[in-house]
Amino acid sequence: MAAVKDAVLERAVDLAREVAVEIAQEPQDVGEYLGAVREAERLVSHRFACTARGYRGWAWTVTVARVPRGRTATVCEAELLPGDDAILARTWVPWSQRLRPGDIGPGDVLPFRPDDPRLEPGFTPTGDPEVDEVAIDELALARVRVLSPQGISEAAERWYRGSRGPATPGSVASSAACGSCGFLVPLQGSLGTLFAVCANEWSPDDGKVVSLDHGCGAHSETDVPSMPSEWPAPDPLLDENAIDVVERGSRETEGGDAPAEPVADAEPPADAEPPADVDTPAEVEPPADADTPADVETPADVETPVDVETPAEDETPAEDETPADTGSATDADARPADGP
């Protein structure tokens, strides 16, 4: 049954606009009058266009009513409602359902799920020491809930297909898999057959769970010899023009010290015999006509005495008779003054 026309309520347009302007953020957000809607008997809603940005197709709606036989309109409620062509937000999704991995920040707490299919009840001690020791110490089942087969399967699938599985670019380019790396820490349980934890600080996966067939450039055995190749290694290239010229005796020692002094020639021992293949020259006697005073001593530095007569050019002895030295004081004393 359609509502009966109510002249008192339909004429309350000014009252409805005043209320719409009052609840709007800005007065200019209330636009033109869009008409009245009879909601029920003695209940009418007046609608005004909303001109605020982002609210296309929305309308300010003010509902008025009156008591029976009353002649005064009273405001029941006022709100902003969408029209037929209004821009609406997405359907509301509860917070616990719209969370994604990585959304949890410091201080955030996930809602408790008592029926989580990824978990199952943990181990309850039986009182048998052997059974309890295996379950608690080795299998780590002394918890209220543990991973169920579904939880283990989902974790393995997620890890293996993630960024630390075998299909990443770094893993494909690596020379060896993580299964042979010395920095790999194995896991317990069924996940340990396929995954382990990286403990190399130089690796991009340090502290992360990696698959055994994953790989990176920080493998512990990267210094193994290179594999043989069918192509021979080229000969080394030597740059003969790059020569360091070092002057003898001008190199200084490290630290700016003075150059080292040359080592004097070592004197042979007194009892050393000359080699057999070296001919010792025989003592050459001075010429017979050389007048050497008997009382003249030759100084130690082998200087020619000033009073010794030099033989003439025509009296120069032959090359084979040239004395090897000017003679010492001992040789002069040993020979007679008039020659042999």
UniProtKB/TrEMBL annotation:
InterPro entries cross-referenced by the UniProt entry: DUF3027
Region (Disordered): 218-237, 249-340
Pfam families: DUF3027
Biased composition (Acidic residues): 268-323
Bias-annotated ranges (Low complexity): 257-267
Annotated protein name in UniProt: DUF3027 domain-containing protein
Species for this entry: Cellulomonas wangsupingiae
